[in-house]
């Protein structure tokens, strides 16, 4: 699927039924650190090719669903080993096309492999059919594969958010058509190629492009499940496209995750201060579950802000993703940079104070790439756009609150509910956490630092439908099929 054209340039083609498919047109993928450098090319898949990929997956499903679970697991384990062996190569490509620093790109592989291994370890018991003998007879509950899965992933974690779908979908006996984001298609395609090399033709297919291809994947009658990670606005189009054929769906969407610091939080805890800074600025803030608005109890607010700035200035070093000193790279694309910049400028116009954070390691690089200096925004109104919108970038508002009731209301009035965090004495924090509307709430940590792949992950309200990760993240790729064998066939209330 990916061909190493030379040392520098990667050419990706669509991968359908075990083969690369030549495209009529290719799109260049630039390096966000230096947008004049082309990292590689990827195709625009045509509608006909997308249909071909779906038909290949539907064809392969007939035999793949019969393949014993032990064989499926064995193939996936071999794929995991191949990814591990190729890790450095993948990580370099990911950093170049995405802009995330090397340590962060390694982190993405770390999370991907951890999840894939968990899925391999748990698949057999999660998918084991259950047989119950009871007073009314016998019931068999089986976890049957759904069929062809259309997997659509975003640009921020292109590998992790593709493998999180590929592994359980295939282990559960489905086949898949993956569409990575056009903003980061190369490394995800490379990893899909590695995985595909261990599976029969047609089990994994990869197509490229944006909404045009996405519409085919989400409306084609042969597709029986959609698993999508991306923006809430895009999900609304997907729901409409899928409505004609009523497809099963898992939607992992946007968030505006709050971090709440209670009166009992110790502002002198430097490790905790470092954790919240990382939870705001890892991957330049381009993570769905990053802490995007911080509420601090008024009694500790001034000291919190002072300590926060110190911690941020220590941790944030903006530079070349390939420099081991760098903790924050450029944004992935110009559109996102301009969007985040717009939110910060709007806050400033409304009277907020904007404080630049961290150290710029290489001024020339900073000016040439899609860089944005991280900022702290103070003095906002609770309903300013920078507070209520998902920024998805390196800026964070910090706001004071007076009592728990008020902050719980501010948290819950959001249309989103992906993750949140509460910081302070454990029992106080858990008590507040229980009142928050979110898929996950972390105590004294936030974002990926609090992620546990053994448990279900997903959002409430407009942050999504369904769950990935955990046993649920495997069973979500199945139809629950009940076979009932009642002892008594006649119902007492039906007349003879
Ligand atoms: P996006 O919605 O713009 O794009 C996501 C994917 O959808 C891309 O592959 C894109 O090509 C495709 N797409 C676009 N239009 C489509 C259509 N009409 N039909 C089908 N597919 C279509 O999102 P993005 O900018 O790539 O990612 C950022 C968003 O993703 C943020 O909102 C972020 O919070 C969210 N996200 C959520 C999670 C989560 O687990 N909840 C994780 C990561 C990112």
Compact overview of the structure:
The protein is an alpha/beta fold and 496 residues long. It contains 16 helices and 24 strands. The longest helix has 26 residues, at 102-127.
What layout of secondary structure does this protein have?
Elements: E1 2-4, E2 10-12, E3 14-16, E4 19-21, E5 26-31, E6 34-43, H1 47-64, H2 69-85, H3 87-98, H4 102-127, E7 130-134, E8 137-145, E9 148-152, H5 160-171, E10 175-179, H6 186-196, E11 204-206, H7 211-219, E12 223-229, H8 232-243, E13 248-252, E14 258-261, H9 270-281, E15 293-297, H10 301-315, E16 317-318, H11 334-349, E17 353-356, E18 359-360, H12 363-368, E19 375-378, H13 385-388, E20 395-401, H14 404-412, E21 419-423, H15 426-433, E22 440-443, E23 464-465, H16 472-475, E24 478-486
Parallel strand pairs: 2-6, 9-10, 9-12, 10-11, 12-13, 14-15, 14-21, 15-20, 16-18, 19-20, 21-22
Antiparallel strand pairs: 1-2, 3-4, 5-6, 7-8, 8-24, 13-23, 17-19
Helix pairs in contact: 1-7, 2-4, 2-6, 3-4, 3-6, 4-5, 7-8, 9-10
Residues 152-157, 161, 179, 181-182, 210-211, 214-215, 218, 229-231, 234, 237-238, 252-255, 288, 390, 392, 418, 459, 464 line the site of nicotinamide-adenine-dinucleotide (NAD).
What would you say this structure looks like, in words?
- There is one protein chain.
- The protein folds into 2 domains: 10-253 and 459-482, Aldehyde Dehydrogenase, Chain A, domain 1 (3-Layer(aba) Sandwich), CATH 3.40.605; 258-450, Aldehyde Dehydrogenase, Chain A, domain 2, CATH 3.40.309.10.
- The chain has a 7-stranded mixed beta sheet, sandwiched between helices. A 6-stranded mixed beta sheet has the order 11-10-9-12-13-23, sandwiched between helices.
- The model is unreliable at 1-6 (pLDDT under 50).
- It is built from 16 helices and 24 strands.
- The protein is globular.
- It is α/β, with parallel strands linked by helices and 496 residues long.
- The N and C termini lie far apart (66 Å).
- The protein has helices spanning 47-64, 69-85, 87-98, 102-127, 160-171, 186-196, 211-219, 232-243, 270-281, 301-315, 334-349, 363-368, 385-388, 404-412, 426-433, 472-475, and strands spanning 2-4, 10-12, 14-16, 19-21, 26-31, 34-43, 130-134, 137-145, 148-152, 175-179, 204-206, 223-229, 248-252, 258-261, 293-297, 317-318, 353-356, 359-360, 375-378, 395-401, 419-423, 440-443, 464-465, 478-486.
- Nicotinamide-adenine-dinucleotide (NAD) is lined by residues 152-157, 161, 179, 181-182, 210-211, 214-215, 218, 229-231, 234, 237-238, 252-255, 288, 390, 392, 418, 459, 464.
